[in-house]
Specification:
- By secondary structure, the chain is mainly α.
- It has one domain: Helix Hairpins (Orthogonal Bundle).
- It has a three-stranded antiparallel beta sheet, covered by helices on one side.
- Helix 1 packs antiparallel against helix 3.
- The protein is rod-shaped.
- The two termini are 28 Å apart.
- The relative contact order is 0.19.
């Protein structure tokens, strides 16, 4: 069987029509039953479709959650960066001649680029300042006190927690994507096998077999399915679902 390039939603709609037409037509059921596809076995396809739709909803939900968390992480990172760079630049001015403080606060050199290392770098900077009253007193001359440092560490804690949630959401999104991919392939294989049997069973009743057509652009070629959609594509035996 060959599905011309169909969006996922249209694929599901057409599969639903195919199964519905099969179950509601006694002539089709009687014919395919002789080759092992009785009403109960056709209903297996119906159950597969419901499972596919359920998996799609789970995948969509996990993707939406991942996107929202990544957006929140980006916002928090920007907030932390703004607060951190302001305090860092002032600290470089305040302690320009004090090599001990510069080394302790790691004022010189490049900032970390990997998120977790960057968070750790800022954490060391802020906590070291909070533990040294004399250094904080120096920064007060430039308008920086405990209030500003605590505001930085508060956002930093939120960023660290959100980053962990992002990793969890990423894992969940991959899981639901794989589950949907597997179910989509299972659905495809079931349809392919059913239509091959139906074509044999209804060899002398082409007008009945036509009821199994899945809408415009659908033809029966006796080959593997191909479905191309916004989130799901299948080429040959494999599927690609965006993560």
């Amino acid at each position: 069987m060959h599905f011309t390039k169909l969006p996922y939603e249209e694929f599901v709609k057409n599969v639903s029509t195919l199964i519905s037409n099969s179950l509601s037509d006694n002539e089709i059921v009687t014919a395919t039953s002789r080759f092992g596809y009785d009403k109960n076995r056709i209903k297996m396809g119906e159950r597969l479709l419901k499972e596919l739709i359920s998996n799609d909803k789970k995948q969509t939900g996990s993707q939406d959650k991942k996107i929202k968390l990544h957006e929140k992480r980006a916002e928090l990172k920007q907030s932390v960066k703004k607060k951190y760079m302001k305090i860092l630049l002032i600290a470089r001015i305040a302690f320009d001649k004090d090599q001990l403080v510069k080394r302790a606060l790691k004022l010189d050199g490049a900032r970390e680029t990997e998120l977790n290392l960057w968070i750790d770098q800022i954490s060391v900077f802020a906590n070291t300042l909070l533990s040294e009253a004399s250094w904080l007193n120096m920064l007060k001359n430039y308008g920086i006190g405990r209030k500003e440092i605590h505001a930085l560490t508060s956002d930093l804690d939120k960023l660290r927690s959100t980053a962990m949630l992002c990793e969890q959401a990423k894992t969940e999104a991959k899981k639901t994507t794989q589950e949907k991919r597997n179910k989509l392939k299972e659905m495809q294989n079931w349809i392919s096998d059913f239509l091959k049997i139906a074509k044999i069973a209804l060899e002398d009743k082409t007008e009945v077999y036509e009821k199994l057509r899945m809408g415009e652009g659908y033809t029966v070629q006796g080959t593997r399915d191909t479905v191309n959609g916004e989130r799901d594509t299948a080429n040959g035996a494999g599927y690609t679902v965006n993560e």
